[in-house]
Structures are given as structure tokens and as C-alpha cells.
Design a protein that fits this description.
Helix content of chain A: 25-40%
Distance between the termini of chain A: 35 Å
Structural class of chain A: alpha/beta
Largest interface: A-B, 25 and 25 residues
Order of helices and strands of chain A: EHEHEEHEEHHHH
Radius of gyration of chain A: 15 Å
Shape of chain A: globular
Number of strands of chain A: 6
Strand content of chain A: 15-25%
Oligomer: homodimer
Chain lengths: ~200, ~200
């Protein structure tokens, strides 16, 4: 169950990586399976024409009056371009989650915790690169601990066609296990403050 | 091409009617195929658990700083519940578009133009009730004249799997033709002001 809370999340990457579906799964998990509220905002604009994709999710224990994410607390990036564009907006104390083989983290704002996962490679182990987004969702679940694992699983299964549920569940589990491993080994990489942006 | 403009649209109905896809098609048409900007915001909350679905779309010729639709100018409703909930928020001078066999319009705010389409029945003529949302998009295109027909068609085709393009294009054409017929016959139903809500 959601405690009284408000969390702002941005997920960004290339078109075709399944950014919107990942955002929608997180919103559903919070609102439909944990009794909270969530909004998901997707932009279509020049950046969409250029092949990038981003979505904003707000999770809340109360109805959301203002769904626009100005400064996300959690940023999930699956491309270098998305990292370059959105990392400077991350709130101090926030969490940065990266597809670590697609994003090189050079300069991060102060007090940001960084977690990387080779999501594309883990998805390829399932022979379906297309589920990298759900690997990211599993990893997100494990490292942020924001939502129940079970709610996220249900939201994944609810969001894909029946024939794809087993594959997506396997992708989720891979991401979650990878994240749990990192957290248990204390590899949260509390990145030292570099130049604040 | 979009003239300098800002349009606020809400689309609402039952879960399963394809509300989110319809909203996304309209956003894409404006931003990707007409060079404008668009955002689509989807809410997950108690109403989603109860089986209703709604999305907000903002179309703009300029970047959108504040994507929250408080008072839509255009409301597209596919269920009585959605009508009851959102019609009171419609701006004076706005447009109300209904699935006319699912929505009984009793009381509308002042100065609202109402256009109804039997979208479910038109979709059933194609033997796929599931495309009623794209019939609504076609109808929306014809009666609002907000976006080019060609942009909307491209956005429809871009938003569905290749095997479904022909069906969805046919659904779009049916809705568009029905809307054009209404407009040409001057049946825009400029509803007399009843009790303002």
C-alpha cells in the first residue's frame, strides 16, 4: 500500500524502447493495484519526430491536481541523449536509473544515487530485446522500493497481450533480481558530487 | 499546418473502448504530422479501477508548459458516466462529441455545439466493434476541422500494427464521412442553452 506520498518520475529513451509502456505499467501498479492515484503524461513534439520518447509519471496517495513534472525525483534513462537532456533536472536527493550500456554517466548533480542495469543485454538473454523496458521496470522496482513487487507484476501482466505475459514476467524478474543483487551488495553507487549542474 | 493555436481536448469512456489510443492518435497527428506540439495525459485512479478511462490532449503551435486540462474546449464522450462527469467542465463555446447511442445528452452548458455519431454501430458494420475509437477520431476530424484529414490518417496508420491498418483506415473514413455529412447538412445541432450547469 502506498503511504502518504508524492513521487515524480521521468522515463526517457529512444522511440521503440517501450518508454510509454514502462511508464504506464508503473502508473497502473500504483493506482490500480495499490489504491493510489497516478497520471502519465506523454509529449509528442520535435523530440518525438527526432526519434526520442519520454513520459512523466506522478504517483500519489491523493488525487493529483497538477500532473506536470518539473523536477523529477526519479529519472530512468535508456539513451545518452535522454540522460543529457533530463539529468540536469533531477532533484537533489533523487535517483538516476540508467541502461548502463547505452548511457555513460559523466556528470551528475549533487546527492544523486545512480543505479545502472544492462537491460538490453538481460532482455537479449530472453531472445527478445524488445522487453528491455520491462527489465527496466523490474530494476526500478527493486532499487526504488516505491511499489510492491506484486503490484508491479500484476500491472505488467495487465498491460501486455496474454501470449506475451510469460516473456514479460521473465523480463521483470530478471530486472528485479539484478536490482536486488546490487542493493544487497551495497552497490548503490552513491556517486560523489561532481560539479552541480 | 497548425495555425497559432492552443486546443484542449478530453476524451472519455469505458475501459476497453480505446480512449487512450484515440487520444494518442490526435496528439501524434498534431505534433508529428503537422509540426506542432502535443501532450497526452492519462489518469490511473479510482475511476480506472471502476472501469472508466479518460485522457487529456493539448495541441499547440508552441511548446506546452502546462499540460493540465482544467476546462476542455472539446469533449469526446463514449459513455453516459463520462458525459455526466465531464460535460459540466466544458467551456462556453466548446464542442461536445458523443457516441450517440451510448450517451443521452440531457442538459448541456450554454453555447455548446453538440455532434453525435453512432460509432459503435458504424464499427460493427466493419465487423470489428473494437475500432469504434477510430470511428470517433474520424468524426472528430470532420466536425472540428482542427487537423488535416491526411495528418489524422497518417497518425492512425502509425499507431496500429500493419495488419490492422486497413481496418482502422476504413473506420476512420466511416467516421469522417458521417461527420462531413452532418456538417454539410447543417446539422451541427446548435443546442439551445438549457440550464447552465
Amino acid at each position: 500500500m502506498l503511504q502518504r506520498m508524492l513521487s515524480e518520475i521521468r522515463i526517457a529513451g529512444f522511440g521503440g524502447q517501450g518508454v510509454i509502456l514502462a511508464a504506464s505499467v508503473i502508473g497502473k501498479a500504483a493506482a490500480i493495484f495499490e489504491g493510489g492515484f497516478a497520471t502519465m503524461t506523454q509529449s509528442f513534439g520535435p523530440e518525438a519526430r527526432g526519434g526520442s520518447s519520454s513520459a512523466q509519471v506522478i504517483l500519489s496517495s491523493d488525487p493529483i491536481l497538477y500532473p506536470y513534472v518539473a523536477r523529477p525525483e526519479i529519472l530512468v534513462v535508456m539513451s545518452q541523449e535522454a540522460y543529457a537532456r533530463f539529468a540536469p533536472q533531477l532533484k537533489p536527493g533523487g535517483i538516476l536509473i540508467t541502461e548502463q550500456e547505452l548511457v555513460r554517466v559523466d556528470q551528475v548533480p549533487e546527492n544523486i544515487r545512480v543505479f545502472g542495469v544492462p537491460a538490453t543485454r538481460l532482455a537479449e538473454e530472453l531472445r527478445r530485446k524488445v522487453v528491455l523496458n520491462i527489465v527496466m521496470v523490474g530494476f526500478f522496482g527493486a532499487v526504488t522500493k516505491l511499489l510492491d513487487r506484486e503490484s508491479l507484476c500484476k500491472a505488467v501482466e495487465d498491460s501486455v497481450p496474454p501470449a506475451m505475459q510469460k516473456l514479460n514476467r521473465a523480463a521483470f524478474d530478471k530486472g528485479f533480481a539484478y536490482g536486488t543483487g546490487l542493493v544487497n551488495r551495497g552497490e548503490a553507487e552513491p556517486v560523489e558530487a561532481l560539479e552541480a549542474v
